[in-house]
Amino acid sequence: MLGNAACTRFFFFPYKEYAGTPEDLGYQYEDIYLAAADGTRLHGWLIPARADKPRGTVYFLHGNAENISTHIRSVLWLVVQGFDVFALDYRGFGKSEGKPDVPEVFEDIDAGAKWVLDYSTQRGAGKPVLFGQSIGASLAISYLADNPAIKARFGGLISEGAFSRYDTIAQHVLAGSWVTWLFQYPAGWVLPDAYDPLNAVASLAPLPVMIVHSVDDEIIPFAESLKLYEGLAEPRAFLPADGPHIHAIRNPETRRKMLSFIESLPP
Predict the structure, then answer these.
(1) What is the residue-averaged pLDDT of the chain?
(2) pLDDT at 171
(3) What sign does the dihedral 178-184-187-192 (CA atoms) show?
(4) Which domain CATH number covers 226?
(5) Beta carbons of 198 and 168 less than 8 angstroms apart
(6) Which of 47, 78, 201, 203 has the smallest CB count inside 10 Å?
(7) Pick from 260, 21, 253, 142: nearest CA to 240
């Protein structure tokens, strides 16, 4: 399995340089450094709520390319709504050390989750919410399903633009180019299914889960999230959106419904 797991490295396209910081956009922030279980040094941003008393904490897992600096706009609206946000860079991204592949990235997510849980407890803001986009959403599903003790301490999960299986999304992406379409089936043969979100969603219960996906998504087909939703047990919610991949929050109505979901979660 570990040999096959190395094949997951091509899902990640990290970039070390920042496009900017939250301060450039008018938001206070703090650099947070933590260590994965194997000792890899990780980095993230804590962006405190624009409120005297935070309404909660959101743990944000970004997509597979660049780093937190190009994804942070996806969660700044939550800061305005009164939530603390912690955004993690996986190993190899931004200031985080190492090289990413799926088994080790789960260690990164675990380190971030434990940090968020401790922070949220200190703030007295109730159970945090995990918000993942694209591969971050797919990773979040598998991580929480495989870690029931951690899952029990989170209030809910929002998944935007996730895929259901690594092999099918690899085939879909490779088939989109005349240069790589011949490799789509070999890619499907060698990718492990142990990490597939579709195999994990049923184990998320009783955690409340909202699945968000744009019908216009040009990167990950809308049908991928439908498969995940169908595999979920209650409590669950499905939010069809519009716009490009992981840009659903540009629509005020989508943000309103996501916020309503968070507000409905038990304390």
Answers:
(1) 90
(2) 59
(3) positive
(4) 3.40.50.1820
(5) no
(6) 203
(7) 253
Beta strands 65-66 and 13-14 are: parallel
pLDDT one-digit tens code per residue, 111-134: 999 999 999 999 988 999 999 999
pLDDT, tens only, 3-14: 444 556 668 889
Q: Is the pLDDT of residue 188 over 50?
A: no
Distance CA 209, CA 97 (A): 31
Strands 83-89 and 209-214 come out as: unpaired
Output the CA angle 61-65-69, nearest 5 degrees. 65
Q: What CA–CA distance (Å, rounded) separates 157 from 8? A: 24
pLDDT tens, position by position, 209-234: 999 999 999 889 999 999 999 999 99
Token pair 């180019």 is found at 177
Angle formed by the axes of helices 135-146 and 102-123, nearest 10°: 80
Domains in the chain, number: 1
Structural domain including 251 reads: 2-264
